[in-house]
Design a protein that fits this description.
By secondary structure, this protein is an all-alpha fold. Helices cover 66% and strands 0% of the residues. The chain has 12 helices and no strands. It is flat.
């Protein structure tokens, strides 16, 4: 295990990313357990932080941890050192706390246990997925492969790199414009996924569908059928998993 960690994580320059990812996930699980214990009014569990009667949301602590971990981390040049790992871990803790209340920041309202609060869980899941892909070696927009020497030993020219990166970016943007958030974001790292998302029908109600699909058109009807028959069952599974991990919303919007 130690040999694998030294070779695959430290030597590969992924120590900071690994520490960030582990503490990001651990913090999210901890804070969700904490808020569920508070909601259940478990007497022996510490409650909310309310000095002087003011409820301090954990997004505030997250911002402090992000600033300390991020700014201090910039001063550490050796990415394989213990301080580098610890500061990356602190940054991961802060990022998790902030994203866990992303919906609250977006709406400027305490929607944590409302339906709108699911957006926070989505944000955490997306961030964890993207970080996991990076940890596995995926590079955004295939930059890692483009900047590496080709099989013939030659490097791609700057215009060639710009063209490929621009095309990959366009695919992800079109996918996002079609209302496929998960596909578009993960497609930044997995280009074939972005290509599939860009080619296939847009979701009804998305900016793409509103602009390009005429009312009562065949494309709109097919998009609505797919939304009902395919996406909604998948969405129910995702919501069920979110409820299991993060807790079920209990306050009507």
């Amino acid at each position: 295990m130690g040999s694998w960690f030294s070779t695959e994580i430290v030597a590969a320059g992924k120590l900071r990313l690994f520490c960030f990812f582990v503490f990001f996930i651990a913090t999210f699980l901890f804070i969700r357990i904490s808020v569920r214990m508070i909601r259940a009014q478990v007497k022996w569990w510490p409650g909310n932080v309310t000095p002087g009667g003011t409820h301090i949301h954990h997004v505030v602590f997250g911002l402090v941890f992000m600033c300390v971990g991020g700014i201090s981390g910039l001063a550490v040049e050796d990415g394989t050192s213990i301080p580098a790992g610890l500061l990356a871990a602190l940054f991961g803790v802060g990022t998790s706390l902030v994203l866990d209340e992303f919906a609250l920041v977006l709406h400027l309202d305490d929607v944590y246990w409302k339906e709108q609060g699911r957006l926070s869980v989505d944000a955490v899941f997306v961030a964890a997925a993207l970080c996991g892909l990076a940890l596995l070696g995926a590079s955004p927009l295939e930059l890692g492969d483009l900047l590496a020497p080709q099989p013939d030993g030659e490097l791609l020219s700057t215009p060639e790199i710009a063209l490929i990166v621009g095309f990959n970016t366009l695919l992800s943007l079109v996918t996002l414009f079609k209302g496929k958030i998960w596909t578009g974001l993960i497609g930044i790292y997995v280009t074939p996924l972005a290509l599939v998302g860009a080619i296939r029908l847009a979701r009804p109600g998305s900016p793409w569908a509103r602009r390009r699909y005429e009312p009562d058109s065949g494309k709109l009807h097919r998009a609505e059928w797919r939304e009902k028959k395919i996406r909604e069952p998948v969405e129910q599974v995702k919501v069920g998993f979110q409820n299991f991990v993060a807790g079920r919303p209990s306050i009507k919007s």
